[in-house]
Amino acid sequence: MSTPSSSSSSLDPAVAARLRHTADGLVPVVVQQHDSREVLMLAWVDDEALARTIDTGRATYWSRSRGEYWVKGDTSGHAQWVKEVRLDCDGDTLLFVVDQVGAACHTGDHTCFDADLLHRVDG
Amino acid sequence: MSTPSSSSSSLDPAVAARLRHTADGLVPVVVQQHDSREVLMLAWVDDEALARTIDTGRATYWSRSRGEYWVKGDTSGHAQWVKEVRLDCDGDTLLFVVDQVGAACHTGDHTCFDADLLHRVDG
User: Fold this and answer.
1) Does the distance separating the beta carbons of A113 and B42 come in below 8 Å?
2) Residue of A nearest to B31 (CA)
3) Per the domain annotation, does A6 fall within a domain?
4) Residue A106 falls within a domain, yes or no?
5) Predicted TM-score of the model (pTM)
6) How far apart are CA A87 and CA A94, in angstroms?
7) Predicted ipTM?
8) Which of the four pLDDT bands, split at 50, 70 and 90, describes residue A68?
């Protein structure tokens, strides 16, 4: 990160070209805990957020509600250290395999899917 | 499903009211294998697809590319039997916990994230 040719906020063009973005320039990211394999949350990145994630090792997203970049854990301390970044077969969804510090959910729940079971099939 | 009051394709209004849809009326669904906890794929539902999923027990999505409903496995035989439907803290993402028959990915891969590792942190 010390030379102009390795900017910390520029996504490898070969990677960028393979992403299929929404009309807003975003790609959804499924976030999974590496050891328990829990699905922690869904978030969104643009190319810049993905580049920052790869460069820093800290999951960095685009907040659609606030319209700004968001380094997970900067406010809460509940960082996500990214171990793997995977792209799906269609190029339109990312998977971050992470090591989550503390609770993933802003409610304090371990995952964003803990609280609300809409439907369960018995047996 | 034999009376008009229990239509097989009408989402419980109390559930529908809690979903935060995209401008297109859709909600993304993270699909996870119940036992291995692998993330299999990301797909999209509207209220009708979610209602059909709950009513039939078979994961049913809205195909954004084809503009039609899509019962997973109807072509491939690789059905997803849905064991749990969860809603996230913001009401804008669903999690289907499923029992996947065969390969989840249309490429024949077990999951849609198997083939393309963009980045890995060593150690």
Assistant:
1) no
2) A39
3) no
4) no
5) 0.92
6) 5
7) 0.91
8) very high
